[in-house]
């Protein structure tokens, strides 16, 4: 239960801080500010709830940790439930705060005409797969054997911020099905219709990144 609560709170905070920066402060902080909000949210949660649950706050990360052999399927499902619920509640709080409610978009992910830089579906798929794979590689590497775990949260948060700097105009950046789920469910319309991509692409990316560790393609050298 303590891990469930930690993942729920962490995912809620990620959506509220990151999407909140876009919805409530985007005109003032710009793309860089939004990117840093997502990154700093992960840093804060990594040190706040990391000792409790590992601070996955992302179903793709939990999938990767499972594939890498670092958690059970049962625990993964528990994490998923907490993450999706947390994202939905976080988006609900943001909707209550936003002046235009769901009409503000709640920082939902998307692609195509009328969204961001109007990139196509193929660009969105490639971006989300590649960036999720790279994100997972950083997470598994910075928390695995031979790492400096005290610095993991910082490295992971910086990576997420950089991913946002690169990709906000492409998809708004998901690399996290729960982060996409919460806003999309409340906004509806095209945000909900396009939600499938933000489940499929991060899952594929997570599998690619995790398999590199599962089969020891990426393995820290043993101390001599």
From TrEMBL:
It comes from the Bacteria. The chain crosses the membrane at residues 35-57, 77-99, 119-140, 152-175, 195-215. The keyword Transmembrane helix applies. Signal peptide: none annotated. It holds the Pfam family MIP. It is found in: Cell membrane. InterPro entries: Aquaporin-like, Aquaporin_transptr, MIP, MIP_CS. The keyword Membrane applies. One of its GO terms (molecular function) is water channel activity. Keywords: Cell membrane, Membrane, Transmembrane, Transmembrane helix, Transport. It is a multi-pass membrane protein. GO terms for cellular component: plasma membrane. PANTHER family: AQUAPORIN TRANSPORTER, MIP17260P. Belongs to the MIP/aquaporin (TC 1.A.8) family. This is Aquaporin.
């Amino acid at each position: 239960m303590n891990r469930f609560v930690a993942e729920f709170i962490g995912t809620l905070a990620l959506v509220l801080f990151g999407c909140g920066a876009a919805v409530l402060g985007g005109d003032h902080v710009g793309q860089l500010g939004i990117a840093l909000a997502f990154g700093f949210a992960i840093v804060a949660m990594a040190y706040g709830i990391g000792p409790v649950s590992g601070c996955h706050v992302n179903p793709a990360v939990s999938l990767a940790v499972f594939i890498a052999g670092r958690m059970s399927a049962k625990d993964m499902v528990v994490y998923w439930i907490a993450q999706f619920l947390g994202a939905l509640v976080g988006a609900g709080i943001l909707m209550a705060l936003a002046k235009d409610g769901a009409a503000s978009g709640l920082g939902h992910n998307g692609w195509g005409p009328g969204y961001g830089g109007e990139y196509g579906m193929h660009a969105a798929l490639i971006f989300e797969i590649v960036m999720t794979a790279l994100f997972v590689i950083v997470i598994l590497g910075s928390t695995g054997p031979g790492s400096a775990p005290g610095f993991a949260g910082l490295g992971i948060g910086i990576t997420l911020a950089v991913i946002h700097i690169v990709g906000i105009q492409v998809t708004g950046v998901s690399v996290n099905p729960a982060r996409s789920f919460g806003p999309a469910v409340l906004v509806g319309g095209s945000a909900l219709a396009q939600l499938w991509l933000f489940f499929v692409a991060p899952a594929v990316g997570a599998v690619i990144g995790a398999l590199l560790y599962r089969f020891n393609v990426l393995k820290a050298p043993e101390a001599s």
